[in-house]
Amino acid sequence: MTSPPHRALLDSELRAIRLLSIGAGVVSILSVVADLLLVRQSDVVRLPPWYEGAVVIVCAFPILVGVLAPLSRTRALRRLNGATAVSHALLLAALWPALSFFPAHAPGGHLPWMLSVTGLATIAAVAAWGQVGAWLTLGAVTLLLFGCRLALHDITPTSIVNDHHTVITAMLMLLMCSAVLTASRQLDASVAATSAATARRAHESARRTAMARTQALVHDEILSTLAFAAQNSPALNRVVSRRAGRVRALLGDLAEGRTAGSTSAAREFAAAAARITAEADSAATFCWLPDSAPAAEAAAFIDPDAASTLLGALRQALVNSVGHAGPGASRTVTLTTDADEHWLRLTIADDGRGFDTEALRGDRMGISASILARLEALPGGTARVVSRPGAGTLVALEWRGDVASARENEREPAQEHHDLAWWEANHRSFLAGARVGTVLFLLVQVAPAVTAAHHSVTPALSLLTLAGVWLAVLALGWRSIRRPSMSRTTATVAIVSATAALMLLLGAPGSIGYRDSWYLTGCTLVLFALALRGRVFPALAGLGVLTIITAVGATGGLYASTDLAVSIARPIGIVAIGGAFAVAIALLRVKTRNLQAESLQIVRHEAYESATRFELRDGARELEAQLGPLLVRLEELDGPGATLSSAEAAECAALEGMLRDRYRGGRLSAEPLTAAAMSARRRGIDVMLLDDAVGEPVAAADLEKVVEWMAEQLDRAPDGGTVIARLLPVDRDSIASVVCDGSATLFRGRKARTDAPAVPRFEV
Predict the structure, then answer these.
(1) Phi, psi torsion values for 396, nearest 5 degrees
(2) Terminus of the chain with fewer CB atoms < 10 Å: N or C?
(3) Does the pLDDT at position 580 exceed 70?
(4) What CA dihedral angle connects 483, 487, 489 and 491, to 10 degrees?
(5) Complete DSSP assignment for 323-353
(6) How far is residue 345's CA from residue 27's CA, in Å, rounded to a whole number?
């Protein structure tokens, strides 16, 4: 089996940090564009050239980090984002020394708008230090910003409104970015746990597959070889010699861990199936029903273990048909493939004598070990046998590659770890943080509303818009962060639009300045939350309505022309950032899910291949240790006059019986019973061990007593007879029975029924 190119396991935390780094760069670009094109500040404080140069560097640095993010690793990105956050804080702290360059006194004026953008430092801090470090950074930057305004005597209604909106926007970004980063860490931990579980399941699947292949080898090759050798017939010596050589070669392949070399195309598989059919019965009909599209037919690949298992089961089904269907029976093998569904089916049908499947004896290994067990051990494989006396036999072998993958994936946890709804369901702390953030948002809106009302000619209007913002939050819902229903979404957008229209209808011409437009940011933050919760297009529609209403108010003289651009720029930027993050998170989630599936497939493949090789080597070496010297001796029968001694023939019979006991004896294949059975066979006794309680519980203490009791019965059995030792079904009075030359002895370990016969009865 060829291993695919190795890929590192999923590192979703790295991808999340890259996303945040790019987001910080985008915020920096938007801030620079807004400062150059939209913001109009009068009487801005004069600063020394070196400080202005530092402002340019601090604004350009996160853009550079965002460009380098796709090529950088986690440690480098943490350091770069940490430098971004620290440089922003140092820039604010350096304002006081910068003002001291003026010898007379600190110049008056307003703080440059770019220095009040706290969201940039917050996003970078989340990427560098996580949620706690980001909260500390936001607190430090906010205090420094307030100190700068105190130093400049820049505490005005407009600055209060601006800083409130800046800080609350930064808080929302902090919560959102922290959710993404923490989700990525949890996802990585989940992937590690899932990978370990996947490897364990792959190992168990490989163990079953290897066991089935070993059992099939025992049945198809070894048992018949030993049975022929036990007859010690000169007419069979050449056949025995060739089969012994073939068995040794197959054991060598397994001992070396050699498996199928590569995937098999459908055409190659069909050719192999046709060849096996012709070898078993030259008169049999082989029919292939491929896909209608030749390209799909040629591109259909079959897992190598599936191909090997299916062809082995096909060979055994044909051998059974030739041996048991009766003379004159015709056989048809049909292969059906479907590349799109990654599925194929083999049916082997004959019109022979048939048999009653319900009456099939448990010791008939041709069907149980070489057909049914083979396919049951194969992931995605199924097999069934349909037959009736006089109506022929149908064997259906089926393999589905998509089912094989689905079985491995169905127990894996959901991969929607970047989904806010997943976080709500699994992280109460995150939901609590979101609720606290919502409450803080509602409370913070009071300050700009009261400030605007205090300086407005229509103070009641500011309070009405505050009520509108609160109603919009309540309509959206803050107890849950799942995707809101369409009715909630429509109500939220309608309330936001009505709040803006309220200012348009009731505001006096020229009465609304920048400080009075605080409600635009409040309404926009509600639309921001709507976009993050999965309703991007309704949020954009609400932003469009908000923009149109504001523009209509400006044309009617409601706003001062100098305040219109900056009043609407922040809402547009906020919703744009929210929508961009929502889309980016969705794309990250899809890409992460695909990468995780690929990573788990690699883990599954490597673990399966490694475990298969180990299990095959282990089973082959055990068989080699038991049969190796005898197989070498059997190969020598090809020489003239070669023959086996009576002891060697008896040993062949004993080993043949021992191998049968492994598969039909079940739990009875344990010491000291196996040793007693081998000893009895060497004395010419035909021993059969049957576990008829397969799948039914038997107490370990009872089983140990049964095994010891059966071993004693075999030791006392007369030479040359027949002994059948059975573990009985649970509906019987007794646990086990030993029938020696027609005389039955029962082991009564269960509580006897009141109507139980007083004498042992013969168990059929």
Answers:
(1) -115, 120
(2) C
(3) no
(4) -150
(5) HHS-TT--EEEEEEEETTTTEEEEEEEE-S-
(6) 57
Judged against a pLDDT cut of 80, whether residue 125 lies above it is answered with yes
Q: Tell me: the pLDDT tens digits for 338-360? A: 755 467 889 999 988 888 776 66
- Whether the pLDDT of residue 316 is over 50: the answer is yes
For residue 672, what are its two tokens?
């000291």
Q: Do the beta carbons of residue 8 and residue 606 sit within 8 Å?
A: no
Q: Pairing between strand 736-740 and 331-338?
A: unpaired
Greatest Cα pair distance, the chain, in angstroms, is 124
What angle do the packed helices 561-635 and 536-555 form, to 10 degrees? 170
Q: Which amino acid is at 309?
A: T
Calculate helix-pair angle for 237-255, 561-635, nearest 10 degrees.
Answer: 150
User: Which tens digit of pLDDT belongs to each residue from 702-730?
Assistant: 888 999 999 999 888 888 888 888 888 87
Q: Please give the Cα distance from 720 to 237 (Å, whole number).
A: 25
| pLDDT confidence of residue 61 | 93
In this prediction, residue 169 carries a pLDDT of: 78
The tokens for 448 are 């700009």
Rounded Cα gap, residues 194 and 596, in angstroms? 10
Identify whether the C-beta of residue 387 lies closer than 8 Å to the C-beta of residue 354. Answer: yes
Give 87 or 201, the one with higher predicted confidence. Answer: 87
Q: Are the beta carbons of 157 and 515 closer than 8 angstroms?
A: yes
Distance CA 301, CA 248 (A): 31
Quick one: how far is CA 748 from the chain centroid? 50
pLDDT at res. 495: 92
Nearest Cα neighbor of 707 from 735, 739, 732, 733 is: 735
Residue pLDDT, tens place only, 134-166: 989 998 998 998 888 888 888 877 777 778 778
Tokens matching residue 471: 């109603």
Comparing CA positions, the residue from 193, 185, 198 lying closest to residue 11 is 185
Residue 477, judged by CB atoms within 10 A of its CB (0-12, 13-18, 19+), counts as middle
Scanning the structure block, which residue is given the tokens 């070489």?
370
Q: What local confidence, expressed as pLDDT, does residue 556 receive? A: 67
Tens of pLDDT, residue by residue over 17-76, are 998 899 889 888 888 887 787 666 677 787 888 888 898 999 899 999 999 999 999 999
Going across the sheet that includes 331-338, the strands are 285-289, 331-338, 343-350, 393-400, 381-387
Two structure tokens written together for 512: 């609304």
Query: Average pLDDT for residues 371-377, to the nearest whole number?
Result: 77
pLDDT at 294: 45
Q: Look up tokens 């196996």; give the residue.
A: 674
Closest of 746, 167, 179 to residue 424, by C-alpha: 179
The amino acid present at 385, given as its one-letter code, is V
What's the full length of the chain, in residues? 764
- Of the CA atoms within 13 Å of residue 455, those in its CB half-sphere come to 16
- In the sheet that holds 722-727, the strands lie side by side as 686-691, 722-727, 736-740, 743-747
The three-state (H, E, C) secondary structure of 164-231, written as one string: HHHHHHHHHHHHHHHHHHHHHHHHHHHHHHHHHHHHHHHHHHHHHHHHHHHHHHHHHHHHHHHHHHHH
**471, 327, 478, 337: which is closest to 397 by C-alpha?**
337
What contacts 45, CB < 8 A, 6 or more positions away? 99, 107, 108, 109, 110, 111, 112, 152
Average pLDDT, integer, range 576-587: 65
Secondary structure (DSSP) of 381-407: EEEEEEE-TTS-EEEEEEEEHHHHHHH
Which runs of consecutive H residues, i.e. helices, occur in 477-559? 486-506, 518-532, 536-555
pLDDT digits (tens, 9 = 90+) for 463-508: 888 888 889 988 988 777 778 889 999 999 999 888 888 877 776 6
